[in-house]
Amino acid sequence: MNLIANSNYIMKDKIHPKYYKKAKVTCVCGNSFEVGSTEPEIHLDVCSACHPLYTGEHRFVDTAGRVDKFKARLDKAKKLQKEKNQKK
Ligand SMILES: [Zn+2]
Fold it and tell me: By residue range, what is the domain housing residue 44?
């Protein structure tokens, strides 16, 4: 190892945050597992056990009800369109 590479290593080592080899990851679905992380605990909304991509389920991950709101707006627009056509 030459001198430049060596000093570079020391600098990087100083800015490294604490590394947890067994950080506990907890998901809202109840699944939990351990990973290496700089955080001792991680909380997830979705994980590999409940994400639609992994489960193969066709469902929306829609916690805020945005899909329902969009559907309601779409229905409203359709109604307005019908009323317009009836007036002609
Ligand atoms: Zn999950």
Answer: 3-63
Number of domains in the chain: 1
Token pair for 47 = 């994980």
Distance 27 CA to ligand 1 centre (A): 5
Cβ neighbours of residue 39 closer than 8 Å, sequence gap 6 or more: 20, 23
* Beta strands per DSSP E along 7-78: 20-27, 32-37, 41-44
Residues with CB under 5 A from ligand 1 (ion): 27, 29, 31, 47, 49-50
- Per-residue pLDDT of 27-46, as tens digits, reads 999 999 999 999 999 999 88
**82 assigned to some structural domain:** no
Write down the pTM of the prediction: 0.43
Angle at 53 between CA 51 and CA 58, to 5 degrees: 90
Do 44 and 25 touch, CB atoms closer than 8 A? yes
